[in-house]
Each structure stands twice: as C-alpha cells, then as structure tokens.
Amino acid sequence: MRYISTRGDAPALDFEQVTLAGLASDGGLYLPETWPSLSTEEIAALRGASYVDTAVAVMAPFVEGTLSREDLRSLCEQAYGRFAHAAVTPLVQLDHQHWLLELFHGPTLAFKDVALQLLGLLFERFLAGSQHHVTVIGATSGDTGSAAIDALAGRAGVDIFMLHPKGRVSEVQRRQMTTVLAPNVHNLALENASFDDCQALVKAMFNDPHFSGTFALSAVNSINWARLMAQVVYYFYAAVRLGAPERPVAFAVPTGNFGDVFAGYVAAKMGLPVAKLIVATNVNDILHRALSAGDYSQGTVVPTPSPSMDIQVSSNFERLLFDLGGRDGHALAAQMQGFEASKAMRLTNAQAGGASALFASDRVDLDDMALAMRWASEDAGQVIDPHTAIGLAAARRAGLPADVPVVTLATAHPAKFGDAVERAIGMRPGLPARVGDLFDREERYATLPGTFEAVTAYIAERAVARA
User: Fold this and answer.
1) CA-CA distance, 386 to 206, in Å (whole number)?
2) Residues near 208 by beta carbon (within 8 Å), at least 6 away in sequence
3) Cα(269)–Cα(264) distance, integer angstroms
4) Is the whole-model pTM more than 0.85?
C-alpha cells in the first residue's frame, strides 16, 4: 500500500513512512493511493469476531508491505488490552432505532484512545533499534492531547509537545495532560488562543523549512493517516452487530476536525453499507454550512460546553474534497491556498454532489444539546457528555427510515465535562476509579504567548535535533 498527498507534489510513501511523517511535505494530507475493499462475505465473517480480530481484518490492507497480520495482531492486542470493557467499543441501545457506540473505555476516557494507543506502539516499533529520534508536535481541543500523551509517555526515541488553548479545555481534560510528568512530555498552554490558532501553529512548524529541517517532526493529530485508519475499525464492529452487510446502518458523529466522520467515509469506501453519515456540529458550524450549502468559510470560534468541537478550520475535510474532486492534487492545492488566503471557499459541484450522497449535517445549539442529555438520562437511563449529546440530537431529528439503525458515536466519558452534565441533568457524573485521583496529582505545563516565535523557541531548547 502506497500513500499520496492531497496536494499532489509530495512523494508517495509506504505505511511506516507515512506514520512517521504525519503531514506531507507539500502541506497536504496523506491518503491511500487506492481504497481497499472487503467483500460482502468478508464483512459478514466479522459477526461475532472480537474487536482485535475485526481490527486486523480492516487494517491489514492499509499496512500491507510494512506489517504482517501477525505483527498487526500483536500490536492490537497490546493497544486494546488496556481498555476497561472487554468489547473495547460496546454498543448500548437507547430505543427501537437509536444506539450509542461507547468509545470512551480507554485510559483517558475519550475516543482518541482507540487510535492513539495503537499509534504510540507503531511509533515505538518503527523507531526501535534506530538512531532516529522523532519530535511529535500536536494541537488539542482537549482529548487528543491526553490520549497522545498517555500513548507516548516514556517511550524511547520520541518527545511530544502538545499545544492547547489556555482556559478553553475542561479541567479534567487539562489535568489528564498536565499531570503526566514523564520527561519526554511537554505541555504548552497558549494565551489568547483558540484550537484553530494552535492547529495553525503546528502546520506552520511542519511547513517551515528551517524548523522542520532541524527536527524530525511527526504528528498525532488526525492529520496522521494511521490515526484515521484505526478509527475505521469501530464502524465495522458496530455495523455487523446491527445487521450489516445485509442491513445498512447510519452513524451520527459529533465532529469538529472531520477526522472521526471521515473514518466512516473510509468504511463506506471499503464496502460497509453506510446508510448515512450525519455530521453533527455545535454553533461553530463550518462543516454544516459546507455540507448543506457548499459554503466553507471560516467564522470566529465561539467557546461552548463542547470544547472539542470549537473549531472553524476542519483539517480532514481536505481529504474528502480531494477524493470527491477526482483526486486532482494540483486543483485541490489551488483551492486550499485560496481558502488559506481568504478564509472562504465554495465547494465545487463535484464535491458538493458527491458529499450529499452519503453525508447529512446538522447544527445543534446549547438548548438542544441539553435536551438531548435530559432525554438520554430520563428516557434511556444513559448519562452522556455534551459532544455525544450533539450527535444524539442530530441523530434523532435526521428523519431516517424506521428500519435503519442509527448509531451515535459516544466520544467521551461524561465525567470529563462534569459541569455541563450537571447543568443539564442535575447530577454530576463521577470519574471512573482508575482515574479517580486525577485532582490530587501534580500538574506541570508552560504558559506561552500564542506566537510562532515563542512556541518554536521553547521547542528548540528541548527537542532533539536530527542526527
């Protein structure tokens, strides 16, 4: 399997190279050269399969030529052995049509663990026995940071620098990052910054020839293909339990950066019968505007109780636009450069038409988010976090046929957003016992101005230069 850039000018890479590289050298994102497919018989054979067995079957084509199935299985057993539920990503029924797919049973209580536990092991494997040292730089709106830090803390050959917008992540999210005191972990709280600002700084560092030439940079954000690959698995795992491949299944996905829902698109390209992918946004609704009206224009980020979705530039949307636009890298590069200059862009007819075939979208405000949390609690006995509530609100008003099961991705444990949950349902969820001492742990992080100069100077003093 080879990987190509969405912008057409970076060299094609194999799976190991693309995992360590993260962002392409031309500023684009990597995608498989061709989409692998699973036959109806192969999908049906996943019924009753364990999560690890499903993961090996789904991911094997993407790692072909780099990892054997036996190696992949070993890595998956290690990654998912740390999850607190034997099913890894269990389904919970809400009513006759609606289900939750619980993705928060990993060590940091968020869906990011599903991919990042595996990514940490891949980094370690690919760097083992070499003199190569990787500097991982990431931006987080809350959950990516803690999941990446947990996955990489103490691993040889890797330093991680994680940028977050100061004051714009929940206290639990912040402490899950800043209480990991491993010497290779560096947390940076950026003043007067949004997640988009943090993400833009990460891209600028990758695209700066001097900085990226000095350090071997890699990424853990969903710009890294390996992360998206691992997330494709739970779409298959859920769908076969609800009747696939004979029965189409719909998914409602709360998303800001478009990574989690793009994994559903990949599952559909591989042959999974996906009835609809419902993109659920909060009031920071660039994705809803793009999918419903073709208007991909950047607004001002509004802080909300669902901070992981407080985003106005969705990095992974570029992958979808590339695939729907005939995979013309140079045309997409021009389109994205226009967006980066003007902060506004119209989808082409091919992009808009292709998206409408599979995607629906919705914008969920604070009142409807709270109503969804109350419905889940009072009618289905489930306490859900604000992001999941946005997905569920969109799912329940999507108007899909009654015989189509609708799975809402439950992306975080409700205790990560205790204040918002308590306001909505009058009850504060407790942290699971395995992280119950979080508020007693020492914190360590640096507060910096949100400037390229300040951040790169901080990293340059602490990172290991290329050999």
Assistant:
1) 32
2) 452, 456
3) 9
4) yes
Degrees, nearest 5: CA angle 337-343-232: 75
Cis peptide before 245 (omega within 30 of 0): yes
Closest C-alpha to 21, from 149, 132, 117: 132
Domains observed in the chain: 86-109+229-425 (3.40.50.1100)
Q: HSE-up of 383 (CA within 13 Å, CB side)?
A: 19
| Cα radius of gyration (the chain) | 20
Q: What share of the chain is helix, strand, coil (3-state, %, to 5)?
A: 45, 15, 40
Contact 151, 117 (CB under 8 A): yes
Tens-place pLDDT, residues 152-183: 999 989 999 999 999 999 899 999 999 999 99
Burial letters 427-453, b for 16+ CB under 10 A, else e: eebebeeebeeeeeeeeebeebebeee
> Which sequence positions are flagged as catalytic?
112
pLDDT tens for 318-344 read 999 999 999 999 999 999 999 999 999
> CA 165 to CA 234: how far, in whole Å?
29
Instruction: Give the Cα separation of 456 and 186 in Å (integer).
Output: 13
Q: How far apart are the C-alpha atoms of 86 and 190, rounded to whole Å?
A: 38
